[in-house]
């Protein structure tokens, strides 16, 4: 078992997704059964749901930006190591494949 700060961005997103969902369910249950004020029953879960959605949005975009930068880095490595021939050949063959599939 790894601590949260040892996880990469994808693992942090996944853990936030399922742990936050469980946390919100627990919060809803506690507020529903333990709070008598109707306004508090609405406001507290709404605030925490908005904060949770913002965290999930942040984690997802951080993960995707890291993936995109890693893909660009790998593409630049490929194009620099073979003089760009690999990317030209790959695009030529993908065009031919698309032409054949139509």
Strand proportion, as a percent range, falls in under 5%
Q: Oligomeric status of the shown chains?
A: single chain
**What is the arithmetic mean of pLDDT?**
80
Write down the overall geometry. elongated
Describe the main β-sheet briefly: none
Calculate the terminal CA-CA distance, rounded to whole Å: 49 Å
Low-pLDDT ranges: 84-88, 95-100
- Count of helical segments? 3
User: Portion of residues in helices?
Assistant: over 70%
Number of strands: 0
User: Structural class given helices, strands, pairing?
Assistant: mainly alpha
Q: Which series of helices and strands comes N to C?
A: HHH
Radius of gyration from the alpha-carbon trace, in angstroms: 23 Å
Description:
- It contains three helices and no strands.
- The chain is mainly alpha-helical and 102 residues long.
- Residues 84-88 and 95-100 have low confidence and may be disordered.
């Amino acid at each position: 078992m790894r601590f949260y700060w040892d996880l990469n961005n994808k693992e942090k997103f996944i853990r936030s997704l399922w742990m936050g969902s469980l946390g919100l369910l627990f919060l809803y249950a506690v507020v529903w059964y333990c709070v008598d004020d109707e306004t508090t029953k609405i406001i507290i879960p709404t605030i925490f749901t908005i904060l949770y959605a913002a965290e999930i949005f942040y984690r997802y975009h951080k993960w995707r930006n890291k993936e995109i930068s890693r893909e660009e880095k790998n593409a630049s490595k490929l194009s620099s190591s073979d003089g760009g021939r690999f990317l030209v050949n790959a695009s030529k063959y993908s065009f031919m494949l698309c032409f054949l599939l139509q």
